[in-house]
Design a protein that fits this description.
Elements lengths: L3 E4 L4 E4 L7 E6 L10 H19 L3 E8 L4 H9 L4 H18 L7 E4 L4 H13 L3 E4 L2 E4 L37 E5 L8 E3 L2 E5 L1 H13 L3 E7 L3 H16 L4 E7 L2 E3 L2 E2 L10 H6 L4 H9 L7 E2 L2 H23 L8 H19 L4 H20 L5 H18 L13 H16 L3 H13 L2 E6 L2 E6 L1
Parallel strand pairs: 3-4, 3-11, 4-5, 11-12, 13-15
Antiparallel strand pairs: 1-2, 6-7, 7-8, 8-10, 9-10, 13-14, 16-17
The structure holds adenosine monophosphate (AMP) and zinc ion.
The site of adenosine monophosphate (AMP) has 16 residues, from helix 1 and strand 11.
């Protein structure tokens, strides 16, 4: 059976074939760098990583673009509150995000693209949409008029025919003609940063960012567009409306969405306060590989209920895999090839690959690995496992690890990263400003325990490692 994915657009499992040769043009929606990412976010990013790795294993070459949203309402609010420029504010969290990705062994895409580095292209795209009659302006902001795009709702399978154009539902503070309409360009409010462009001063909306950068780097029609399920509507629906209006071509052929990570039955999210950052979890002594394993172990179309119990059993699973690898490396097996075991290994490897070909069914793939390890361990104990069986077993384990990448133990995180330290220093400065000196001292002590020494100088805080 060929490689296939469930496509949100068709609501069917479809065979995967890129448009051209063996190259996969893929766009995935990246982080908004206004804070540390939580492990719910990383579930989605880990899914992108598995997708990349399996496509590569199947012989495809990747051209994968992921955006970094570095201008957005929350970013602006927080940067203003901290009297920082947008760039200074986002740099800390972008750096932290990339460090976290590295800790989780998430392969970087072929291109990271920042929204703020493509403002002129976004303005040009909005201008084109305006010339085509897809927009209207209200108080200096520009909106996409959904009534000009009849296919709206095809991805999310929402039927909007019941919504009257002109019905007013206030979903944000801007004035829109229709509840579905969305801001392409936002006029600056008092004190907010803005860009001067041919369409006026302001900043882009979130949706146009993805359409413009995806088309710029990957062409008018992508092979794969992926993201979390929360992005299907309205974000991806809006991306389609803009992109198709701009190019007249289908925007993406396969839309793949991953489900949420939950805590006690609810989506992990900043707004609910039920979240752990990757740093929180590592600080409790868990290895990043255990977190990676947990996030990678549930098929992307199923919700993943996060518990520390679950994380502990992920740790146990990683240990089992490593013990098996160690046994393969260290034990001396009798010469020869046990044909029964040779068949058993080939079966397991086929089941592993077939499961991943089946819409990345990681649960089945892992079951194939663990059932095999159980049988191989029994054979080793009984003296039935022979030298040549070892070579094939090692090749299978390597293949497993090219996708799951949990066998190599990470070296202990030496200490806090630079970005961590800077974020803590900023928090301490905030506390001082709020005259919360106890908190400021606590942060200083916490840093000292980690070997970071702060020096208050007249030019601000300087720090060094012990
Ligand atoms: P954001 O940085 O808020 O733009 O979110 C980045 C990504 O994380 C998006 O693709 C979301 O779909 C995804 N995401 C947010 N919360 C969760 C969650 N609880 N589980 C899985 N993915 C999530
Ligand atoms: Zn996007």
């Amino acid at each position: 059976m060929p490689l296939r994915f469930y496509n949100t657009l068709s609501q069917q499992v479809e065979e995967f074939r890129p448009q051209e040769d063996n190259i996969v043009r893929m766009y995935t929606c990246g982080p908004t760098v206004y804070d540390y990412a939580h492990i719910g976010n990383f579930r989605t990013f880990t899914f992108f990583d598995l997708l990349r790795r399996w496509l590569r294993e199947r012989g495809y070459r990747l051209d994968h673009v992921m955006n970094i949203t570095d201008v957005e309402d929350k970013i602006i609010r927080n940067a203003l509150a901290q009297h920082k420029s947008l760039t200074d504010y986002t740099a800390t969290f972008e750096k932290a995000f990339l460090e976290d990705c590295k800790a989780l062994r998430l392969e970087p895409p072929e291109r990271w693209v920042r929204a703020t580095e493509h403002i002129n292209e976004m303005a040009a795209a909005i201008q084109k949409l305006s010339e085509q009659g897809h927009t209207y302006s209200s108080e200096g902001s520009l909106y996409f008029r959904i009534a000009t795009f009849p296919d709206y709702g095809k991805l999310s399978h929402n039927d909007f025919s019941g919504i009257r154009a002109g019905a007013r539902v206030d979903v944000d503070t801007y004035d829109k003609a229709d509840a579905r309409d969305f801001a392409l360009w936002k006029a600056p409010k008092d004190g907010e940063p803005f860009w001067d462009t041919p369409i006026g001063p302001g900043r882009p909306g979130w949706h146009i960012e993805c359409s413009v950068m995806a088309i710029r780097y990957l062409g008018e029609t992508l092979d794969i567009h992926a993201g979390g399920v929360d992005l299907i509507f309205p974000h991806h629906e809006n991306e389609i409306a803009q992109s198709v209006s701009l190019t007249g071509k289908p925007f993406a052929r396969y839309w793949i969405h991953s489900e949420f990570l939950l805590v006690d039955g609810q989506k992990m999210s900043k707004s609910l306060g039920n979240y752990y950052t990757l740093r929180d979890v590592l600080a409790r002594g868990f290895a990043p590989e255990a977190v990676r394993y947990l996030l990678a172990s549930v098929p992307h179309r199923k919700q993943l209920n996060f518990t520390f119990e679950g994380l502990k059993s992920a740790e146990t699973s990683v240990d089992r895999l490593r013990n098996f690898k160690l046994r393969l490396e260290k034990e001396k097996f009798p010469p020869g090839n046990n044909p029964k075991l040779a068949i058993r290994t080939a079966e397991a490897e086929t089941k592993f690959s077939e499961s991943l070909d089946d819409d990345l069914n990681v649960a089945e793939a892992l079951a194939a690995v663990f059932e095999y390890i159980r049988d191989a361990n029994v054979a080793m104990d009984a003296g039935d496992f022979q030298e040549e069986n070892g070579a094939v077993a090692r090749a299978f384990l390597n293949r497993f690890d090219r996708i799951f990448d949990v066998l190599r133990p990470s070296t202990q995180r030496e200490s806090l990263s630079d970005a961590d330290v800077e974020a803590k220093i900023a928090a301490r400065a905030q506390a001082k400003k709020a005259r919360n000196f106890a908190e400021a001292d606590r942060v200083r002590d916490e840093l000292l325990q980690q070997g970071i020494i702060l020096e208050d100088t007249k030019d601000g805080v300087r720090w060094k490692r012990k």
